[in-house]
Amino acid sequence: MPALMILGGNIRFAGGIAIVIPLLVFLAGQLALFFISVMVGSDESPELGASAPVSALFLRRTALTAGGYCTLLLMAVPVLGVMLRAPGTLPVLIPAMAGALVSNLVIGHGMPIPLMRPDFGKAQKGTMLGLVVGVGVSSFWALLAWVLVTPNPFGWLKG
């Protein structure tokens, strides 16, 4: 039905920065989910954690910090672009990205997504539920950002 509405000209989406903000929010959440899943979902993680001379709480914090740090590094250039082009959207972009990032780090730490290892096609530990929940949470934060950034968020339904 939505495809027919789009093809029939009944739906018109906003363009420009109104589309960029939710895409960046969604991307930040998915990158965080991927990075934390790589760190906690590998076959070697339990052995490395057991042999480390630090507490389990420190290992958890380190994995969460590293996942967040990688995501922030990758998202820095797009955020700088938004800062230069539409600085008025930063009060929405930054909290929404932070919400998506933190939510997906927590989800991915508890339910890492399944990943494929390059050697022998062996799958790492993970659950599809983590992927579904992560995509849902990223979508929620992206939708929230879109509603807050777009002047008339439901104006795309013309009838």
Structural commentary:
The chain is elongated. The model is unreliable at 1-7 (pLDDT under 50). The protein has helices at 2-7, 17-41, 45-51, 56-85, 90-110, 128-149. It has one domain (18-149). It is an all-alpha fold. Helix 2 packs antiparallel against helix 6 (128-149) and helix 4 (56-85) runs antiparallel to helix 5.
Question: What is the strand and helix layout of this fold?
Answer:
Blueprint (H helix, E strand, L loop, with lengths): L1 H6 L9 H25 L3 H7 L4 H30 L4 H21 L17 H22 L10
Helix pairs in contact: 2-4, 2-5, 2-6, 4-5, 5-6
Give a quick precis of the structure.
The protein has 159 residues and is mostly helical.
Low-confidence stretches are 1-7
Structural class: mainly alpha
Shape: elongated
- The whole-number mean of residue pLDDT values reads 80
Task: Give me the number of helical elements.
Answer: 6
Largest sheet: none
The radius of gyration computed from the alpha-carbon positions, rounded to a whole number of angstroms, is 19 Å
Oligomeric nature of the chains? single chain
Please tell me the total number of domains.
1
Q: Helicity level, as a percent range?
A: 55-70%
Distance between the termini: 15 Å
Total DSSP E strands = 0
**Helix-strand pattern, N to C?**
HHHHHH
- The proportion of strand residues reads under 5%
